[in-house]
Fold this sequence. Notes:
The protein is α+β, with helices and mostly antiparallel strands. 46% of the residues lie in helices and 18% in strands.
Amino acid sequence: MFILKRQDVEITGIQHPKTGQQVPVLKYQGQTFRLISVFNANQAEEARAFWRDLTDNRGKACVLLEEPDRYSVWGKVRLEQIGEDPAASGAAAVPFFTQASLLLLQAVYFDIEDLLGNRQAGAFEKEIAKVFQQWKFPQATSPQEILDLLERDPLEGSQQVPPWQEHHLNTLLQELYRLGKEYFGNPNFVERAIDALQDLPDGEREQFIDWMNQSPLGQMWATT
């Protein structure tokens, strides 16, 4: 649909009427868009490919916002839909999608700890904390919350998954892949991390991988 610059648009947050959470909203020429996915500054090609796939192949009305430090894809939504359509409202992602993302996060973290040592694991913990802070992940602020996300079994019955939205999961998995390559120097960690998804029931694992394959995540994490 459109490729826009930051000065072309207005970005605000509106409160979701049911959850009370702030939903990021982009306004352009009287139209309203909700955040779908965020990409790093060095992921221009992936961002454009994802945007073209949504607009050309899936018929979605989307805009690609180009900023100096990131790219983001936004999908058109009517304001009255906020609170009615879970996919358009900023509602939390499917819980087992969040659990699967946490399994990948922990797999990379433990891999760094086992192969590179405690000092590198501590550095990774600080890096991932910056990601949570920059992109305002709910329930991922305090050191204890971050430690729980890195170490507590997300499949444990008493463990409540954070109410992250799909754009949070997209951002986490993109940043996790980037950090993994930085720490290991290559993408060989991916295969070991993907093995962690075997802890999920078959149906949930397949749905999560299908979801990843609908974006550049599938290529990053070698799920295709």
